[in-house]
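Hi R.,

Here's the chain you asked about this morning:
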Amino acid sequence: MKKFIYLFLAMMAPAVFSSCNDDDDITVVTSPTASGTVTDNEGNVYEWIRIGDLEWTTSNAKNGTPIYDYTYYNNFRYDYVQIKYGSEYEDEVDYIDNGYMPVYGNLLCYEEAIASAPEGWRLPTDEDWKALERALGMTDADNKGWRGTNGVASRLMATSESGVGMGLKLGGGTVRVKSYGWMAMNLNTVTEYGYFWTSTPDNSYGDVPMAYFRKLVSGVEGVERQCSHTDNLMSVRWCRNATN
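And here is the predicted structure, written out as tokens:
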């Protein structure tokens, strides 16, 4: 994939708007107070917006090991990536490089998700995600499982044209299938499901390395807070504490 090196940071005058959610009697952020751009280590440029005390990238990370080159922890490789791709692409690698990643970004394991963040940015913690969810109207952010059924998922997925501008993309599943010495990953759920890493581990599973993530499903007005094996591959957003 071609990489273009470009760096530009911009701030716009704060514009704060909020609305009252009648169901929960809380204030919901509907517009960011600042914005700009940030560049990753491969030259990809991302926009960011400020929500509350945090600044968030508004598109999924594109850097890191491409999906089709990912090697599992025991040296198994993803020999097959099950995906949907149109006739305009010659093969799955062509689709991932030129169709999938420009729209949905890359899918990374937990450790690479942490390492992917540009200087001064981080893979959001579980608490960072909760702060974002509360700002968008969630009242049960501390719960595990499905929470925020009052429109928070729609607000997270809304673009700047229709909402606050986080624009979370549903980049498909992270299902790993190990059989007969080969690995497969199913991306057939593109536009149906989206999984996003947090940097917060869950040590309650003993020696099994697990970390929290967020899951969104098309047409479902809730956001799942759950844990997954750190070798799974998920979408990545970055955040940082608000700058002056």
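One quick note: The two ends are 35 Å apart (CA to CA).

Cheers,
M.
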